Amino acid sequence: MGRGYQAVCNECGTQVEVNDGPGMIAMPFRCEDCGKEWWWHFGPGGPMDKEPEPPPCECGGRFTSEAPPRCPKCRSTDLERDPGGYEVMYD
């Protein structure tokens, strides 16, 4: 089970949407350089049926399941969960 939540960048104050962990039909991968998110869909017709690994990111980086979330504005990894923000669980 995965979860999505709002976080705040401690470097620049930007609000960030973070998705962590797999669901039943997909899981998020993040670019190790820019933090852009790419979803790997399981099952018939999804990328796992066609590609041995995620495609390269537009920035030239690599999508991995281990890359930390990053601020889309300043690319910092210093994020803190927003206590006033939402949190959802997905499966």
Mind explaining what this structure looks like?
There is one protein chain. The protein is mainly beta and 91 residues long. The chain has one domain. The strands form two sheets. Strands 1, 2, 6 and 7 form a four-stranded antiparallel beta sheet that branches. Strands 4-3-5 form a three-stranded antiparallel beta sheet, with no helix packed on it.
In short:
The chain has strands spanning 2-9, 15-20, 26-31, 37-41, 63-64, 79-81, 87-90. By secondary structure, it is an all-beta fold.
Query: Over the alpha carbons, how many angstroms does the gyration radius reach?
Result: 14 Å
Backbone shape: flat
Domain module count: 1
Q: Find the structural class using helix and strand composition.
A: mainly beta
Order of helices and strands: EEEEEEE
State the helical fraction. Answer: under 10%
Low-confidence stretches at least 5 residues in length (pLDDT < 50)? none
State the helix count. Answer: 0
- Strand fraction: 35-45%
Average residue pLDDT: 90
Counted beta strands:
7
First-last Cα distance: 5 Å
Largest sheet: 4 strands, antiparallel
Blueprint of the fold:
Layout: E1 2-9, E2 15-20, E3 26-31, E4 37-41, E5 63-64, E6 79-81, E7 87-90
Antiparallel strand pairs: 1-2, 1-6, 1-7, 3-4, 3-5
